[in-house]
Design brief:
Layout lengths: L1 E8 L5 H15 L5 E9 L4 E8 L2 H19 L8 E6 L17
Antiparallel strand pairs: 1-3, 1-4, 2-3
Helix pairs in contact: 1-2
Organism: Metabacillus rhizolycopersici
Protein name: ABM domain-containing protein
């Protein structure tokens, strides 16, 4: 499994904009091939927001990025303090289960 981490900065007091963008992008991301899940991180005080998407394969993560990142850049071009950053990671899950990430299962 692979993860795609996107970091973008909107500036202070932009929570509503961050929520709106997150909802829009979440809906689109869920329809892409290989999608496994999303987690979002908001730091309103610093105006920094992160999206972590899980994908079946590295190619799925790359394909999703080729669709989603240009859309994000376009949305942010007039309001972004910093250029958004994206990174891909291989996900290590110490469990044998292929259905859910072990970190998401309550024991």
């Amino acid at each position: 499994m692979y993860a795609r981490l996107v970091v973008f900065t909107l500036g202070n007091e932009k929570r509503q904009i961050a929520e709106k963008l997150t909802k829009e992008f979440d809906t689109t991301t869920r329809k892409l091939s290989g999608f496994r899940g999303n987690v979002y991180f908001f730091n309103d005080r610093e105006g920094e927001y992160r999206a972590l998407n899980y994908w079946d394969t590295k190619d799925h993560a790359k394909d999703a990025n080729s669709v989603m990142f240009p859309k994000l850049e376009k949305e942010l071009e007039n309001m972004n303090v910093k250029k958004p950053v994206v990174k891909l990671f291989e996900v290590y899950d110490p469990s044998d289960s292929k259905e859910l990430l072990f970190s998401h299962i309550k024991i």
